[in-house]
Write a structure and sequence with these properties.
single chain; 144 residues; alpha+beta; 7-stranded mixed sheet; 5 helices
Length: 144
């Protein structure tokens, strides 16, 4: 992990247009929502990596994690996740990892679980996504 990256910041509402533009450019299906906490890593005012924590009942879903293509495979995503472990550990945190990204999430304190182990609201969402043909693995954050 490259520790020279800036510390992640939670996005204030004033930045929302910048975050929305970042998602439109790099992950159009990862639509940000002002109501959900969004964490970013910026360098010289430019967003390099972002993730959203969708609040659902008594849990949260890590979603919309994306790194700017020229900064991928440099440890930036791991740096972001590990820098906000206090936030991820406060509330049960889940993600629906694209199956090819399971090793990445495993390395960052997520464990694959059965869909039946998800909270009801998340299980129905997971079922809907996989019925659409998405190759996803349900995972839960477990930082020891």
């Amino acid at each position: 992990m490259n520790t020279s990256y800036p510390i992640p910041e939670q996005v204030p509402s004033l930045w929302f247009p910048l975050v929305k533009k970042f998602y439109q450019e790099h992950y159009p299906s990862g639509k940000p929502n002002k109501a959900d906490p969004i964490w970013v890593i910026r360098e010289k005012g430019k967003i390099l990596c972002a993730l959203r924590l969708k609040q659902i009942s008594n849990s949260q879903l890590l979603t919309g994690m994306v790194t700017e293509p020229n900064h991928r495979n440099r440890g930036l995503g791991s740096h972001l996740i590990n820098s906000i472990h206090h936030v991820l550990g406060e509330t049960p945190t889940y993600c629906f990892a694209f199956t090819h990204l399971v090793p990445f999430y495993n390395a960052n304190h997520f464990t694959a679980i059965l869909a039946e182990m998800l909270p009801v609201e998340l299980e129905s969402r997971f079922t809907a996504y996989t019925t659409q043909g998405r190759d996803l693995t349900p995972m839960r954050y477990n930082r020891c």
